[in-house]
Protein 1
Amino acid sequence: MLSRLSRPKAVALCALPVVALLATAAFAPLPFSVAQPGMTANVLGENKGAPVITISGAPMRRTTGQLRMTTIEATGPDADVSLGDVIDGWFRTDRAVLPRDAVYPSGNTVKEIERHNAEQMRQSQDAASRAALRYLHVSDKDVKVTLRLADVGGPSAGLLFSLGIVDKLEGDGAGGDLTGGRTIAGTGTIDDTGTVGAVGGVGLKVQAARRDGATVFLVPKEECPDARAELPKGLRLVPVTTLNGAVEALVALEKGKGSVPGC
């Protein structure tokens, strides 16, 4: 049994391992990635000096406004993320702490991840082209669409690619632009039928969109709560579930007529 006089010393000695453990944990790498708002790119314009959308077999319209696809940036699979990084990320609205395996499949090398993301992007571009041409009732045997976007992987730009193709070929159907001259941003996967899917990271993507001048953000409907949670001032959310619905919402917004859905 400890005497009253020896108790503070004993407590101090017991506390030393705890302090050492916390100090070690603060600098030890943890299985997390820290994500932040990434770059955006106007699919109606150029990227790295080359047009994002090139079409042969049909005349392309000259467009105004912007359709900006959005991204997030995450620490790499080999990066060391400390307890301090995690705590900092939890308390910042422009950061998100995610399990590393949710960002990078466990066991994959950096090269394998890059190949996987590049393949997802290629499949997304193919699906976006087919969905847009199907919406326009145009045969892919007559019209060829080429999409180029450097240094971006994954499927989340599908919706914006499809909208860009529609705008380049038809616009709003009455001689105007889908954007109405605005900077429109968004995210969402797309399949051949024009169905829009969720992507994740929308709380960070809305911040990237507003930072780069967007006033409207197209978001997969099921991700409205995540988008609202970190919504910057001056950015309007428009939920979408299909390419048809996205086009209709943009036309209604451009003309100031009809119903524009909201989150």
Protein 2
Amino acid sequence: MITFRKIVIDRKSRKPKYRQIVDSIIDGIATGSIVIDEQLPSINMFSEEFLLSRDTVEKAYKILKERKIITSVRGKGYFVSRTQLISKINVLFLTNKMSTYKMKIYNSFINSLGSDVHTDLFIYHCNESLFLNLLDKSQGAYDYYLIMPHFKSDQLKHKSFSESIINKLNDIPKKKLIIMDNNKIALKGDYSEVYQDFENDIYNALNDGIDKIKKYKKLLLVYPEKIEYPYPKRIVFGFRKFCAENNLDFEILNEIYDDMILKKGDLYITIEETDLVNLVHQVREDHMSIGEDIGIISYNDTPLKELLGITVISTDFENMGKTAAQLILESKVGKIKNPFNLIDRNSM
């Protein structure tokens, strides 16, 4: 059994006692003084030895179990079950969905951190209740919290935050918090951001392609108004501003309909993959030429779009992951706008 001399509790420290228990056991595993299959003291023994409440010890053991560092055996107690995890840094990566481009961010982040960092990935599907529940369960368990705040309202429209979300995020020590992708959220303190500026990003990217865009008679943005994984409305604001300043005729559609009226001289900007596929299919059915009769720009780059020669306006997802990893590795706090560019291929 683990002896109490291997556990260090500093009563003068401002660090919560449950967190001291967690860190002390992890440090013991990292240094080799605590080994796999070694038994931990019971909750009663622990609380009596250090004059702590049962709730404090239970919270520490719960965190260690959730991170699969220890396991409980009915009738026997708690045992160390994992010794290879234990990295110097543990990260919670919390994203609203697992799309191709979100995977790019995650993989770039993991590859940039190296083997000394352990990352747990959770997906909350834009669901506020699930998000809050995940943060409740992980409170105090990680060295860093990487969070992409994109939520859906009851009407399936995009929202960046609520009072409950703000309160929960403000509970996280700011030096441990990195807000990614969407920074339209007001928190107290000095925390990190690696973000897109959705309104100005689309506005500036389209201006970069203005010479080609002006050859088209009408611009059509396909922005899904109500969807399971909604997009920030600021995309629409930036599009409208671009069209108004350049005196361009435009229209905003909810989707590419199965019986679209396609006219030569139209330029479509699609966001959803399904709308892009449906549009390309209909353009081919009508024997029109993409990039000549009908222009297409897609939002967010993927390998398939590159292969098909589809022009995109997109943030640099790999750079976003690398930048977040760099903030952790260098123990820095910063607010960094991620690059967003027009990538001109053959479809505009």
Protein 3
Amino acid sequence: MQCSRLPQVDFNQLTLDAQVLEADSFGAKVYRLKDGNILKLFRRKRLISSALLRPYSQRFIDNALQLEKKGIPTLKVLKHYKLDAPGMTAVLYKPLPGDTLSYLSRQPGFHWDQRLPQLVALVRTLHKTGVYFRSLHLGNIVVTPEQTMGLIDVADMRFMRAPLSKRMVRRNVQHFARYIAREKLEAQFPLAELEQALLG
């Protein structure tokens, strides 16, 4: 996808009345625009880095396209922008419709026995097709209106030519376990069952 320049005046117009979904010490990082689409900003963190040749935004786009090729539901990239600020790019995309597992798991009447088999199947598919998603957690897995599971926030991802090794599968499960602990979900999430299904 071609990267086109987005002048500051056009950026200001695009983000007018947008909702800021995520920010850091530098400012807003993710906007929900009035039309429901998402604008995600990428900053090059170092003056000299591999991002000079392949910006983080391009990796984000490539990852979304790779997932789509593998038949895994994900966001749909619409445009790729170069911003006026040095080292900054942005991706405009249509979000994957649905609710995250993080949100659903906190709703009254939710039971993991209804969702765990589907979650296991999704993660197994990733591992078998060589997708190493370091940010795999409940907040990045969406249940769509069709009741399928897909992925969002796909920047932190690698694609291997072969299925993931046992070591990488274990590391992926450890990342997931740390998220469960950080979000204080140990009491409700069947982590032992997930680990057994993926590592057993």
Protein 4
Amino acid sequence: MEKRAKSNKFLLKLGGIAVLITATIIIIKQLGILDTFSITDTLQNLLQWIQDLGTIGYLIFIFAYILSAVFLIPASILTFGAGIIFDVIEGAVLVSIASVLGAITAFLIGRYLARGWVSQQIEKYPKFKAVDEAVGKEGWKIVGLTRLSPVFPFVILNYAFAITKVSFKDYAIASWIGMLPGTIMYVYIGSLIGNLATLGATEREKTPLEWVLYIVGLIATILVSVYVTKISRQALDSQIEKI
């Protein structure tokens, strides 16, 4: 019975991976990514299409944002674009909802498909286990600080936290709060750009508000590094005492 249960779990995970791969192929084909070799152009075209859809565009925008989180596509263009095709308030609300749903979806996929394997591996390494235990206990603080930092990419963090012991509730709430300042700022900057055609331009001077958020983010990076090191050392010492 136990072997059959393990076999069923393996097949279920394999099926999930197959679904993800199939969905990825379909999305790439539909959006024409292979034809243009440009994620930026593809997202600009998508935003232009959403802009002409009216109310239903809200739902499609949220769905596109979730897909970007799941398939590790940088969401900055979508966030800036929300400021262009919607007003600042609507755009910020939509991105806030979409980013949290995207973060949650990627987190659940990562935890469901990978967490069990990771748990087996870290049992062999006390230091890794200590870090994992520490994140599990103090997860909401670490999640919140990393979400404030520009050093940690949004799409990578979703899967990174999925393989730690941070609780779903702490992850979801801390992600929403931590991402909110950046969400509002980037949507506002998008509203200043005002043109989808120039959305992907790299030669753009940062606004004073943007510099402020970057400085806050860098401070958060330092804090989370120091904090994780501290609690991990404490957890490791605790593990050693039990041996």
